[in-house]
Amino acid sequence: MNYFSHAHRWLDRDDCDPYWLAGLAVPDWLGVVARRTKCRTKHVESEFDSNDPRLAALARGVAQHHDDDRWFHESRAFVELNLQFSQAIVEACDERTDLRAGFLAHIVVELLLDDVLVGAEPERLDHYYHFMSQLDSEWVAGEIARMAGKPVGRLAEFIEKYVELRFIADYAEDRLLLFRLNQVMSRVRLEGLPDCFAKLLPGFREQIAERAGELVLAPPAARTFWPPSA
Fold it and tell me: Could you tell me if 63 and 70 are in contact, meaning their C-beta atoms sit under 8 angstroms apart?
C-alpha cells in the first residue's frame, strides 16, 4: 500500500489521530530518507500502551502499516494486477528483465490505488493533510530513531515537505505521475521510464478502478492496532 491507501479507512473516525497516521506512513518515509533504517513492529510494540498518547499512536500506526502491507501484498487482486501490469510493461516497452517490470508494476498498482481512493472523495485528501500538518516532525523523527535504534536521516525535514508538497494529488495527472515514478526509479538506482510506458497508464487506471474494492478489503485475519487499550 501507499500513503493514502494506508490512511483512508481511518480518516472519518472520531478517534483518528495525526500521530497514528504518521505511524502508518513512517516505513515509507524511511524508504525515502533512510533506506537502510527499518522500523518494524518488534521495534515499536513496547510503546503500544505508552503513557504518552502520541507515542502510543505512533507506535501502533507503524505496526498497522506492516500488517496492512502483509495482507495487501498477499491478496488475489494485488497479485493478479501486479502480474498483468508487469507483463504489459514487458510487452509494450521491450523490457530486458521481468524484475524491473515487476518492481515498476508493484509501485504503479499502489500509486494508482491512492489516486482512485482520492478521486472517490477528494475532500478526504485535504482532511488527511490537515491531520499531518499537526505533527511535531522533530519529535516524530526523534522517537522513530530511538525505537528503530538507527539514524533516520532528514526525516523531520521530509515530513514538513510531505505536508507542503501534497504530492499524492499528483497521481491524478499522467505527466506528474510519471515524474513521481521516475523519482522512485532514481532512488533505487534503476533507469528512468521509457516513453512507451505513458500509453499504458489509461488502461492501468481503469483496471485499478475496477478492483479497488477488492484491493482495500481487509481479510478476517487482518489485525487492528487502533485504538490503544483503555
Answer: no
